[in-house]
Amino acid sequence: MSILRFDPFRDPIAQVDRLTHELLSGTRTPASLPMDVWRSGDNYLVALDLPGMNESTLDVTVERGTLSIRAERQQAFGEDAAVVVAERPQGSFTRQLMLGDGLDANAIEADYRNGVLLLRIPVAQSAQPRRVQIRREAGTPSAQAVTENSQAAELNDSVPHQKHDRRLVSSSA
Fold first, then answer.
1. Would strands 43-49 and 116-122 be described as parallel, antiparallel, or unpaired?
2. What is the CATH number of domain 2-127?
3. Phi, psi for residue 143 in degrees, rounded to 5
4. Could you give the CA distance from residue 9 to residue 94 in angstroms, rounded to a whole number?
5. Whole-angstrom Cα distance, residue 151 to residue 156?
């Protein structure tokens, strides 16, 4: 999984409008949503901080291997309010992650609690390690037969042999 840091299709006019709005209003909008990503067992977990976001504005979509997270925070004050300090980011927020082929994009789960959006992205079944069965040709010894023959040979080599001749006297046990 990789993070999309550059979007060549981003509208440059919208970026200039956003910067102008920030300068004139005294508010700021972060470039991206802060997140943590870790792997636990057969899942990748992504935690994004979205404090104060209205749950109805959250949108998580997957399209052509790109996971997009969108959210919006409305300003708490009205148009006619005299804003003294406005440090909390407001507006629309977006974060995009590129999903690798080894992830199951159809089984992604999302949970929003206490201002944190938690995404569970499972590793695809086809990307998980598995044991490969080896087929044998007819007439060649199976792995079990080879193992049994090897063990028998080792056992014979480890037992001391007595030389036998016709004059063998019985040994006492």
1. antiparallel
2. 2.60.40.790
3. -60, -35
4. 14
5. 9
Distances (CA, A) of 168 to 34, 153, 162: 88, 25, 10
Residue 166 has pLDDT above 80, yes or no: no
SS3 115: coil
Q: How far is CA 55 from CA 66, 70, 99, in A?
A: 22, 11, 24
Burial of 63 (0-12, 13-18, 19+ CB in 10 A): exposed
Residues facing 37 on adjacent strands: 46
Averaged pLDDT for residues 9-36: 67
Could you read off the pLDDT of 23-75 as tens digits, one per residue? Answer: 666 555 555 678 899 999 989 999 999 888 888 889 999 998 899 999 888 87
Burial of 75 (0-12, 13-18, 19+ CB in 10 A): middle
DSSP state of 41: T
- Contact partners, residue 122, CB within 8 Å, separation at least 6: 42, 43, 44, 103, 104, 107, 108
pLDDT greater at residue 39 or residue 158: 39
The domain segmentation of the chain, as residue ranges, is 2-127
Helix/strand/coil for 140: coil
The one-letter code for the residue type at 82 is A
